[in-house]
Amino acid sequence: MQEKGTISIHTENIFPIIKKFLYSDHEIFLRELVSNAVDATQKIKRLASLGQYNGELGDLKVEVAFDEAAKTITISDNGLGMTAEEIKKYINQIAFSGATEFMEKFKDAKDANEIIGRFGLGFYSAFMVADQVEIQTLSYQDGAEPARWVCDGSTEFEITEGSRTTRGTDIIMHINADGEEFLDKNRIQGILDKYCKFLPVPIKFGTQTDREQDGEDEEGKPKYTEVETDNIINNTNPIWTKAPSELIDQDYLDFYKELYPFSEDPLFWIHLNVDYPFNLTGVLYFPKVKNDFEIQKNKIKLYSRQVFITDEVKDIVPEFLMLLHGVIDSPDIPLNVSRSFLQADGNVKKINNYITKKVADKLAELFKSDRKSFEEKWSDIGLFVKYGMISEDKFYDKAKDFALLTNTKQEFFTLEEYKAKVTPNQTDKDGTTVYLYTNDPAKQDTFIQSANKKDYDVLLMNSPIDNHFVAQLEQKLEKTSVKRVDADVIDKLIKKEDAPAHVLTEEQSAKIKTIFDKAVAKANFKVEIESLNPDELPVTVTMDEFMRRMKDMAAMGGGMSFYGSMPDNYKVSINGNHKLISRIAQAESEEEQTQLAKQAFDLALLSQGMLTGPELTEFVNRSVSLI
């Protein structure tokens, strides 16, 4: 048997283009060929189960080997094998129509994925690293003869009688100069670990040395012998392929350690298992993230029939769940031939919605079944929930029943519970309920205590996403305003009808303003005389709630860069009803007035952590002189 011919693709330019476009991700050749070998192995197993193959299956596995001296990499299986006719059908006739038009359309394309994505070119990825590829194969069919196919990367091939004596296929790649990096044990092991870690057929790559007990010595201590065993690189039955009823908590924790060896144990997990209207399995873990708002993308791994595809899952997993870890496996997600990029279609959207619903349902279940435990986990999961509520309206609708607000006393409330708690006392004269919050209780303690004196409650909002969450609460909650506790003096944050009367005359107010304008002497600090409770501080420095919030969002990269470039502007509120202000107004000398005003202003700055450098030194020296 001998035959020569030309591969039926109607153009001689296909191979250079395949090489060019696949080369950017050239390590995938190993994944493609090992996956093909696994498919062939599973098919013979399937035929045997159906009674269509009655021979001995033998030890079903795929073997990867390399010979550095001969510069070859070989992938062997004992699967279906092929006849010479099947080689011609599956290898020579690349299965796409209109090849000439295809080549014309894509000859100048920059996006390889569209090319590789729609045509059956997985086998030809071998030519990224090889200048010659050889197939030795023997079909499972009765009376089949071994066949050999060889091609040097041009459109010419040769089929001759093969040398294989057992069922299956060897793919032998003669590695070119550019691919010699792959003639390395660690390089190959790394690729197999990345892409083939959970394939359903054992993958052998060389051998490993194990120690086995071999009796005992004279003192009764165990003796060990070193033995060579197959180095099987994969777990053929990962937990996402099993039913949840077969698993215990330790199984999920052990698998998490297998995926992320150096991570803390996760908080909990969600087992995905659906077969209609699409097929999807997987396990998603909630890791401990607290307030380290570094979205650790590339933590969820996407598989298709246990073959690793990508860790770029943004189309499948909602953005807010990119903080999760775990595995998703679906044969229904459309992939290109390099299996590296998702193509958005109806199934992807359905899967996205399904995952969002499953996560919301799991959180609701945890909240209802054990609220105390849920509250204990809130510092870790709150970031997920708030991010989801901001990102997805559908998630907000579900999460509003279990999302928690925490106050400075470490008490927890649902949105509905908190509204009921503060509405009676924190509703202003216009009928708007005002939520107060702090993002730094230690720094803003003066303002918190001022609020507490009026029996106002203060929420703790100190996660990096809370600026956005506050804005959403204002948008979603009817007649509700959310203000940081240091955004103004407390009487201005929640304006009531019973504001205290002004004890200063108009002339005294003008005089005090002049004194403080001179003492402050900063263009970005605006002095205002306020009618406040005499028990409040004499001077308070604040930044407008809106402006500060916009600046905080700009600092986070929240699309508010215009505000980020604006200078910081502050309001200096002078409590005209405080006895110190009256004392300043009545001071005999201008020097004493200025000194007392500067001292009061610096105290306000100090309480905000805004007094530093020479100004702090001056304040200390002035304080000593006043004692």
UniProtKB/TrEMBL annotation:
Signal peptide interval: none
Keyword check for Glycoprotein: no
GO molecular function, one term: unfolded protein binding
InterPro entries: HATPase_C_sf (IPR036890), Heat_shock_protein_90_CS (IPR019805), HSP90_C (IPR037196), Hsp90_fam (IPR001404), Hsp90_N (IPR020575), Ribosomal_Su5_D2-typ_SF (IPR020568)
Pfam families: HATPase_c_3, HSP90
Taxonomy, superkingdom: Bacteria
List of residues binding ATP: 32, 36, 77, 82, 97-98, 169, 339
This protein's UniProt keywords: ATP-binding, Chaperone, Cytoplasm, Nucleotide-binding, Stress response
Family affiliation: Belongs to the heat shock protein 90 family.
Cross-referenced PANTHER family: HEAT SHOCK PROTEIN 90 FAMILY MEMBER (PTHR11528)
Official protein name in the record: Chaperone protein HtpG
Lineage: Bacteria, Pseudomonadati, Bacteroidota, Sphingobacteriia, Sphingobacteriales
